[in-house]
Amino acid sequence: MVDDYLIEQLEGTRFQLHTPQQMPLAAHPLPKGNYATVIKDSDKYRVYYRSNDPSYKGSMRDGNPGEITCYAESADGIQWQKPNLGLFEINGSHSNNVTLHESPFCHNFSPFLDVRPEKHRGKRFKALAGAHPSQHFPSGGLCAFESDDGLRWSKMQDKPVLRVEDFAFDSQNVAFWSQAEGCYVCYFRTWTPPPARLRTISRTISPDFLHWSTPVATNPNFPGEHLYTSQTHPYFRAPHIYIALPTRYTAGRVAGQKTDGMLGSTDILFMTSRAGTTTFDRRFTEAYIRPGLDPERWASRANYAALNVVPTSPTEMSIYHAVSQHRYVLRTDGFVSVRADMAGGTLTMKPLIFSAQGSATATMLLLNVSTSAAGYIRCKIRDEAGHALPGYTLAECPPLYGDGIELPMAWKSGADVKALAGKPVTLHFELKDADLYAFRFGIKQ
Fold first, then answer.
1. How many other β-carbons are positioned within 10 Å of the β-carbon of residue 392?
2. Each residue of 141-161: pLDDT tens digit?
3. pTM of the full structure
4. Segment (H or E) for 347
5. Would you tell me which CATH number, out of the four given (2.30.30, 2.30.29, 3.40.140, 2.60.290), belongs to the domain 337-442?
């Protein structure tokens, strides 16, 4: 329910953005670092983040030779360990968790697990990294990296794969294989045109991770609004929907006071996009994660979400704050719901066609829904002409109440809707003191 792509009409209902809940700091939390990336790889969680070689005493400008990319892992996404990789000598020792030490690429090294079909994929992990032109990197731009194990990295070619004048590659530039689009997609940092010159986001695509299309500006900024990162990635339960958690930068403001224009307070926003589009849905203008009570979060550039929302249980997903090290949780699919209060309301979807899930298995309409003890949800299914289908009317649908990620919708005849597969149908929901987060047709897991 993150957007209205499938929604025809809301009456007495509304979109409700749900705030992630900050969890107590774990005994061994996500390591503190800049431009972090969290990847769920089968039964292991991986995190990559930027740190610094303590022996380096030179310039601290972006992309300096003292920057390093570090690695940690977790079995549950809550408690993290730093393995001794022994790959690079740092501060006189190989006993460390450094996975890359190459200037300027450690400034914003951001890997992903490549889910492209194996026969075309190559190595399991890829990454983009780069910066402005500098003495360490005269050409500027983004270079492509790959790895079999996610620990030992090599360039796919020496020259940058993406280099466009006036694009600011010093931010975390994120990429992934889009199952829905059948190509690699990259969202990266750029600028809006003068005179505003706001930090913003552009998008490009590639068939092979080496040759990229002419970038397109996505223009998600509101007037005067800087977006420092995008953290755009496919949602793990619906990879055709891209979730974005950008950092909003308010220049000249720290702890509510006017100050140096190069400094600024930050918070984290929620946006979405759909595969194949070049725009973001910005229906929610408020902060998703505020700086909060901790004064350190009101320092300049102090709030960044790690890339990727990942499942940490069958009913929970996690967002990580890369600076404070806190984990924030939501119910599965719980970004946004369609909500009705006690007065009740309705939600009508656009016509859709679903597929049956095997000839011998019932296909059900499964709801991610939460109601109060007095609330409920019911569903009527209409045909293409708008007429209620016999057996699927509201009168034949007992109120469903409770709280679950996949609760089957049932009618007096049962929950199997396989007979309607392959035909255009419209779902009409009636809600009372309830939140509907998502639905799907299929087999209950």
1. 24
2. 899 999 999 999 999 999 999
3. 0.94
4. strand 345-349
5. 2.60.290
